[in-house]
């Protein structure tokens, strides 16, 4: 007789009814199926049903008729429902009880931990204490489900979920099933695990994976930078002490952009007749 093991889906027989549900058995062990975990109001004695085995809040084996796609034998996407600084993050795998992704299995930097609402690709594992925990998928796990990209994807927009983050960059699994890498030079800030991001394909490698940039295309960046300049000038009644000969460090400190990007955006605004420069200052055209 197969032992009742947490994290698995099993077929068990109804042993007898209790005031708060039914006890199920494999012929040797009995566990509780609470009435809140049932899909129907009544069960028959000796009826065989399929249930997922987990541990309740007291660590006791329990059963639910809600069958998750994530087990110790299968991977799936789980949504983060709670973040606990001292413990880790709790993940909804499709049952009423959240499962813990332990702090020790998360990056040391809490800023890149998954947040509530983020989704992670994961499985379940039994810890040294016999308790169920969430386990993040590794690179090889993603490779087993990923598609190979071809050159037709180059420069295409993509969306995806971050599944690993390192100083060198971030790994992404796209919504279309491709594996990609975002070098740290191709992002403004480090995305967190489980975060959904949008970018574009800047390279397709021979192994079928892609390189991704989260930075806007140059023409998109010019528009965004121009809007940033105009917004700043609005706060200063249409005048600012910056022009195309300002020091790069001053531009970076004020606008968070390179001098080259600043000059391109400023050139766009002057060409459109929205601003003009004079003696180290830039003004709205209507103010001249």
Automatic annotation (TrEMBL):
- Gene3D superfamilies reported in the protein's UniProt record: Nucleic acid-binding proteins, Winged helix-like DNA-binding domain superfamily/Winged helix DNA-binding domain
Q: Which residues form the Conserved virulence factor B-like winged helix domain?
A: 227-283
Domain Conserved virulence factor B third S1 as annotated: residue spans: 142-216
InterPro entries named in the record: CvfB_fam (IPR014464), CvfB_S1_2nd (IPR048588), CvfB_S1_3rd (IPR048587), CvfB_S1_st (IPR039566), CvfB_WH (IPR040764), NA-bd_OB-fold (IPR012340), WH-like_DNA-bd_sf (IPR036388)
Domain Conserved virulence factor B second S1, by residue range, is 75-134
> Which chain regions cross the lipid bilayer?
none
Conserved virulence factor B first S1 domain location: 7-66
Pfam families attached to this UniProt entry: CvfB_1st, CvfB_2nd, S1_2, WHD_CvfB
What's this protein's family per the entry? Answer: Belongs to the CvfB family.
* Protein known as: S1 motif domain-containing protein
> What does the organism's lineage look like at the top?
Bacteria, Bacillati, Bacillota, Bacilli, Bacillales
